[in-house]
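The instructor's notes for this session suggest beginning with a concrete chain rather than abstract definitions. Hand out the sequence below and ask the class to guess, before any prediction is shown, which regions might be ordered.
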Amino acid sequence: MDYSDDDGMLDIESGEDNLYGDDVDPGFAEEDNDNDSASQLSYVILKEEDIHEHQRTDIEQVSTVLSISQAESIALLLHYQWSTSKVEDEWFTDEERVRKTVGIVKEPVVDLNHTNIICGICFESYFQKDIATVSCGHPYCMTCWTGYITAKITGGPGCLMVTCPEPSCSAVVGNGLL
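After discussion, reveal the predicted structure:
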C-alpha cells in the first residue's frame, strides 16, 4: 500500500519520500517486482568527478565560513561524515571542544627554534630542514615520518584520520603531509 500526493510519493516499505514524482526519472534504479510503485528504490549514482566536485565545494564552504585551512576543513568533514551543517552547528556551539575532539590545534605546542632537533621516533639529532612536523609541532625525521605515514596508509581506512605519532597528542595530520 502506498500513499501518493501531488508533491511525490511516500514509499511505505522504505520510509523515504520520492521528491521527483512519478513522471520524472533522474537516474533512479527501479526493481521489477510486479511493477509495483512501492518497490522503487531511491538513489542517484554519481560519477567520480561529481563526488570530487561536491567534496571541493564542501571543503571550500567550511574553510570560508569557519576561517580555517582546507586541511582542517577536511578533518572536520571526515569526522562529521561530510555534513557541513553538522560541522558548522558543532563548531559554533563549542569550538574548543570540537578542536580537541577532531585534533585541530590553534598553534604548535612544541617550539622548534633550535638548530639541532631530536626526532620523536628514532631520537636522532637533525637540522630543522630535515624535520617534518604536524600542526602540533612534534618533530620527526623524514625517514621516520615516511615510515609512519606508509604504515598508516597500508593499514587501511584509518589512514583518513591520521594523528601525530606522539602518543599523548591527538593533533590531526593534514592531507598536505600525507
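Then share the key points. The chain has three domains: 3-39, 48-102, 116-177. The chain has a mean pLDDT of 78.
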